[in-house]
Amino acid sequence: MEIIDKAVKEGRTTLSEYESKQVLAAYKIAVTREVLVEKAEDVPKATKQIGYPLVMKGCAAEIAHKTEKGLIRVDIRNDDEAKAAFNDIMAAMGEGKGAVLVQEMIKGQRELVLGMTRDPQFGPCVMFGLGGIFTEILRDVSFRKAPLEKRDALEMMQEIKGRKILDAVRGMEAANTDILAEMLINLGRIGLENDAVKEIDVNPVIISKGIPIAVDALVVIEAGA
Description:
Blueprint: H1 2-9, H2 17-26, E1 34-37, H3 43-50, E2 54-59, E3 72-76, H4 79-93, E4 99-104, E5 110-119, E6 123-130, H5 135-138, E7 141-145, H6 150-159, H7 177-193, E8 197-208, E9 211-214, E10 217-221
Antiparallel strand pairs: 1-4, 2-3, 2-4, 5-6, 5-8, 6-7, 8-9, 8-10
């Protein structure tokens, strides 16, 4: 893929969130609608295109943990808030570093993590589990070696302890497991078809009205691959 090849040539080890999601979208994995903005004067056009309420994030290849660095603003509801958020985020990133991602705000209480890691022995392996800020604490995940069949993906969903999160619960409709299965299958395909991709972290995937949408993503690449 052109995005990946370009990053490899530049000697980078990660793609930005925006680039990472472009890779996912190319493999038919649903991602948030978003616009990358580099100049303050372009903010109104971007907010009009996405619509309020929205989320704004600092975006650069070297930024992996945006929350800890204070580079995320959520539930922005008007032009004044958007302009202030843009200026704050750009200042926090430092002069000439990165841009701001203007992103639709996905509403949903259930968060999942999907991923791909390149194992030295088994090659690309796909991960599924409970997502959000507690991913590393709970470690409730399941793995399969790529390529995946649909039944493999469905089995992974049933292997985690928190599998009932996918069911209809507390007035929320059941998660569309067919779409989730396709996402897992396609993550495996990215690993199989792009040798330079070392790891993919898609967290969170938010279930919104039953539909899973990738809200944040990070693609790690092998330098000099």
